[in-house]
């Protein structure tokens, strides 16, 4: 199954912290915030993840996930730039070429404590 992580936005409500760093890489406990939704997708059986963000921050996600010396995630990552902040529906539409019939979308700042797996 494929999953999409929406990691755009300016994080303006978290300034001044987000003045120089995207909110999705701010540490929550012992890991960047975006690791929580990625792990949620992996736990749900997702093996391909598309990360969508703005041009200013997409390179940091590539660096974060592709240069992971511990090989923390056993999934294939792809990346897409949302050139303008046009909202969630627009960001999801950018995944059209990536997704199949079934896919899951999660926001990059979501921390979900329950499994998404269907029983």
The value of Rg in angstroms is 14 Å
Low confidence ranges: none
Count the domains: 1
Q: Specify the oligomeric state.
A: single chain
CATH architecture: Alpha-Beta Complex
Written overview of the protein:
This protein has 119 residues and is of the alpha/beta class. It has one domain: Spore Coat Polysaccharide Biosynthesis Protein SpsA, Chain A (Alpha-Beta Complex). 23% of the residues lie in helices and 22% in strands. It is built from 3 helices and 6 strands; from the N terminus they run E-E-E-H-E-H-E-H-E. It has helices spanning 35-43, 55-66, 88-93, and strands at 2-6, 27-28, 31-32, 48-53, 76-81, 103-107. The chain has a 4-stranded parallel β-sheet with strand order 5-4-1-6. A two-stranded antiparallel sheet has the order 2-3. Strand 2 (27-28) and strand 3 form a beta hairpin. The longest helix is centred in the middle third of the chain and has 12 residues, at 55-66. The relative contact order is 0.29.
């Amino acid at each position: 199954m494929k999953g999409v992580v929406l990691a755009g936005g300016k994080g303006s409500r978290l300034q001044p912290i987000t003045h120089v760093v995207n909110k999705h890489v701010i540490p929550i406990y012992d890991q960047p915030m975006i690791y929580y939704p990625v792990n949620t997708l992996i736990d749900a059986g997702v093996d391909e993840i598309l990360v969508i963000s703005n041009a200013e921050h997409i390179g940091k996600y590539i660096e974060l996930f592709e240069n992971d010396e511990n090989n923390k995630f056993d999934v294939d990552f792809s990346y897409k730039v949302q050139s303008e902040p046009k909202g969630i529906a627009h960001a999801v539409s950018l995944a059209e070429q990536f997704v199949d019939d079934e896919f899951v979308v999660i926001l990059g700042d979501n921390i979900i404590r329950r499994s998404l797996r269907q029983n």
